[in-house]
Amino acid sequence: MALKDAGLNIVWIDKATFPRDKVCGDAIPSNVQRVLKTIDVSLNEKFLQQFIEKVQVEGCRFVAPDKSSFDLTFVTKGHAAKRLHFDHFLFDMANECNSHVTFIGNASVELIVNSATAVTVKLTDGRTIEGQIIIGCDGANSIVRKNLAQTFIRKKENIAAVRAYYNNVADLEHNMLEIHIVKGYMPGYFWDRKINPMLALAW
Ligand SMILES: Cc1cc2nc3c(=O)[nH]c(=O)nc-3n(C[C@H](O)[C@H](O)[C@H](O)COP(=O)(O)OP(=O)(O)OC[C@H]3O[C@@H](n4cnc5c(N)ncnc54)[C@H](O)[C@@H]3O)c2cc1C
Q: pTM for this structure?
C-alpha cells in the first residue's frame, strides 16, 4: 500500500491464501493508527469506519495471583481484533489500492538468489519470479532473512509463546484488556478481552 504510487509492478507472494489465521495476541495498539495514517490517511479512516470486527480497548486490568487488581486507562485508545480478520482487511486494502499489484497465494518461497541485476525468487512448485527489489515480510522464520541477510535469530534471546482461544469466558463486560498472573505459570501470563477471550502464555 505504501508503494501504490511508486509506479512499480508489484508481485505479492504468500504461502497462505487469505483469510488466514496467524498466532497473535490480537492487540492492535494505538500506534497502529499512526502507522496506517503514514501509509495512507484513507487507510486509517477505513480501519475506523469499515473494519467492523474490531473492539476498542480503553485500558488494561492487571490481576495478581491473589486476585487483587488495578486498572490502567490508556490515554490513546487501542483496539483488538482477531488477526484472521485484521490481516484480511489489510489484504483487501492492498489489493484494492493498485492495479499493478498481483497476489500469488498458496505459493511457498524456497530460494532467493540475488545478482547484480535482479532478484530471483524460486517457489516450491517450480515457478520463478524475477524483480528488481524484494521486501521480506515473511515473519519470524523469514526465508528472505535466511537467504539474503545472513543473520540468525539468537536462540538465547528467544522466548516461546502459546496461544489458544477459549469460549465461555465470563465477566468481560468492560472494554479492558485483562492480564492475569497465575502462580505456577510465571513468568507466563494469561490475557483476555471481550472480543475473543484467549490464553497466551510466554516464558
Ligand atoms: C503468541 C503471540 C502473541 C502476539 N501478540 C501480539 C499482539 O497482541 N499484538 C501485536 O501487535 N503483535 C503480537 N504478536 C507479534 C505479531 O504477531 C508479529 O509481530 C507479526 O505477526 C509479525 O508480522 P510479519 O508481517 O512480520 O509476519 P507474519 O504476520 O508472521 O506474516 C508472515 C507471512 O509470510 C508468509 N510466509 C512465511 N514464510 C513464507 C514462505 N517461505 N513463502 C511464502 N510466504 C511465506 C506467511 O504465510 C505469512 O502470511 C504476537 C506474537 C505471538 C507469537
A: 0.91
